Amino acid sequence: MAAPVTPEAPAAERVPKMHRRRFALLYAGLALLLLGGAAIGLHLATRTIVKPKPWASWAPLETSPEARVREIANHVQNLYIAPGGKDLTTVRGGPLSVGSDPAVLVKPDASATATGGYKFFSGPSVEYQLCGNTTKGNCAIDQKKITPNASGALTRRMAYELALMTFHYVPEVKNVAVLLPAVVKGQKARMLVIERSDFKDPKSLSAGLVPIREKKDGQNDGMPNSSQATRIAKITDPLIFHYEVTATSDNQPVYLITPLLISDTGKAAKITG
């Protein structure tokens, strides 16, 4: 005869009390996680996101370094308008060259004994040329429409802006040279030269130096006042060089740059009639 069957105890009774306590703790932990997740979700949904101010309101669209340099040249050219509504200068940008031949930057440096007392700038270099829009075709700034002081400050500011934008948007470039137009008759050829290593933070572009723009009424807004012109000069003075085009012993074109010296101011000026 079969043994009598005893009804099975309910599952809750079969689980030891210790296990029940563990399950209770687990459920409590899950509840806390759900509450925490809900709080985080609410925070993410309602928080105020503070976006950092962009380095500049404009950025080049091209991808190649050469195309970006040309874009930067066109952009800066359009920012600076001379009295009358025309561009202050035409800006050309591209690899540092003399004609169609790649060139290098060189300056005297007594400590560079291995290279005969000259420092050769290393790394890729970019050249911009600012050419005043005169009818004479000599790239000078027309003094009848803007004073030498104003045009000198603005073209230096343009050169500085071109360099910093290049360092920011074209990381391949290590050196920028900007050929400046003459703002007075007979002015010696000048060039603004900046090495990337000189500028750890190109955001210094926004140094309170506002480009010139044309108002609707035909009057200029942003012409540098005396304090702005002084600030521009202070920033750019160490970066301005005289230059001449020469060549190395193996005929590689060279821009030989030299700083303006006090002794240069003692040379007799040539007066032209």
Textual characterization of the structure:
With 273 residues, the protein is of the alpha+beta class. The chain has one domain (65-262). It is 30% helix and 21% strand. The chain is built from five helices and twelve strands. It has helices at residues 11-14, 17-46, 65-79, 148-169, 226-236, and strands spanning 89-95, 97-98, 101-102, 104-108, 118-120, 125-132, 175-180, 190-195, 213-214, 220-221, 240-247, 253-259. The strands form three sheets. An eight-stranded mixed β-sheet has the order 1-6-7-8-11-12-4-5. Strands 2-3 form a two-stranded antiparallel ribbon. Helix 3 (65-79) runs antiparallel to helix 4 (148-169). The longest helix has 30 residues, at 17-46. The radius of gyration is 33 Å and the shape is elongated. The model is unreliable at 214-218 and 269-273 (pLDDT under 50).
Overall pLDDT: 78
Rg measurement, Å: 33 Å
Count all strands and give the number.
Answer: 12
Helix percent reads 25-40%
Give a quick account of the main beta sheet: strands, pairing sense, barrel closure.
8 strands, mixed
Distance between the termini: 142 Å
Instruction: For the largest sheet, list the strands in their spatial order.
Output: 1-6-7-8-11-12-4-5
Number of domains: 1
What is the 3D form?
A: elongated
Alpha plus pi helix count: 5
Helix-strand makeup class? alpha+beta
Low-pLDDT segments? 214-218, 269-273
Strand content: 15-25%
H and E string: HHHEEEEEEHEEEEHEE
